Amino acid sequence: MKPRTPPPLWRATKWIVLLVLLAAAYSLSWRVTQPDFLKLIVAAPKAKQIIGDFLHPDIIEREAEISLIEIPFPIPCGSTEVEAAPAPVRLRVEPACAEPRGIFRVSGSDLGPGSTVVMRWLLPSGGTLPIEQYPVDEEGAFSAEIQARPIAATKDGVPARLQAEVSVPLTRIHVSQAMRDVLNAIMVTIFMALLSTTLGTLIAAPLSFLAARNITRTSRLGSVVYYLVRSLLNITRSFEPLVIATIFALIVGYGTPFAGVLGLVITTAASLGKMFSEAVESIDPGPIEAITASGARRSQVVMYGVVPQIIPDFLSYIIYHWDINVRLSTIIGFVGGGGIGYYLSQRFNSFEYHKASTAILAIIVVVWALDFLSAQVRKRMA
């Protein structure tokens, strides 16, 4: 019997409904995300400066002569009295006070050609709040507009102070402090990944045998253990490493590598446990049957019939996961897990984009090198 074809009107209606739903979905997406492409054009000067910093990573530097200039700045105006700045004035602020979120201009002169100026707030509470880094032109001058932050408001009659850190480069060149900090942080990240992979493997290996159908499900008790371990691995794998690392960062301390290691250990154990168990389930049953027929105990069957078959797969998975953990360690650092990610988040928060660029460059090199190394090792083991 020839199948009935839907009438043309129904097919047209179906497509119309589908198009209406798609239009509604895109309309809702536009309203939720609120794209503002004009803002990209307006922010072009700022983007140019940020991209310029990223294109000039802080790898080497000249020795610099550092000087600090501070000017009291009441917020709001009239909240306290300040003394007039002594002459000669290398840093000028116009006006000398501002309302919260008001805009004022900071300009400097006689600062040294080719130097840089890092502006920051010295808060009445004793803390500091970075503003931005500004280049000094060939005449030793710079000018910038800054917004008065409400957090810098006068407190108990004590005004905030604007601090300018002027760095005048000298002639001698050496490896920058940022590069040394990045190398230290990237080594911490590599060892975080190594330790977490090792501990995760030690946990995953025994669990993988309990989660393997062909090893555990030989009795009613074994089936119960199998489903319990499988469920545990699946539930643990459902948690994002970022969430686990954030929880541990709150427990053991924000910015400590130990928090990142703990987060990676749990996710590594769950992931490798699943992969290991699948490797155990895919082994050749022939050797197992032969060893079992010879009257060997269950432990001997596993030791001589299973382990020799799974070692290559296990080693390949371990190396591969170490590579993954190096990448994850970078991201986990942003939530307080330590390592290069934590260093990178600090540089972003302090607007030191040239130092952030150094960290990004180091991450690219290390990830590429480890990816190449792990691929070569897995190729030789294949």
Précis, in short:
With 382 residues, the protein is of the alpha+beta class.
What are the key terms here?
alpha+beta; MetI-like fold; 2 domains; four-stranded antiparallel beta sheet; three-stranded antiparallel beta sheet; 12 helices; elongated
How does this structure look, described?
The protein is an alpha+beta fold. The chain has two domains: 63-174, Immunoglobulin-like; 178-381, MetI-like (MetI-like fold), CATH 1.10.3720. It contains twelve helices and seven strands. It has helices at 8-33, 37-42, 44-54, 177-210, 213-216, 220-237, 241-252, 257-281, 285-293, 298-332, 339-349, 353-381, and strands at residues 60-73, 91-94, 103-108, 116-122, 128-135, 142-147, 160-175. It has a four-stranded antiparallel β-sheet. The longest helix has 35 residues, at 298-332. The chain is elongated and about 95 Å long. The model has no long low-confidence stretch (mean pLDDT 84).
**Chain-averaged pLDDT:** 84
Order of strands across the main sheet:
1-7-4-5
What is the number of E strands? 7
Number of helices: 12
> How is the biggest beta sheet arranged?
4 strands, antiparallel
Radius of gyration: 31 Å
Instruction: Quickly give the CATH architecture of the largest domain.
Output: Orthogonal Bundle
Q: Helical content, roughly?
A: 55-70%
CATH fold descriptor of the largest domain: MetI-like fold
Characterize the quaternary organization of these chains: single chain
Order of helices and strands: HHHEEEEEEEHHHHHHHHH
The N- and C-terminal alpha carbons lie at a distance of 55 Å
Q: Beta-sheet strand percentage? A: 15-25%
Structural class: alpha+beta
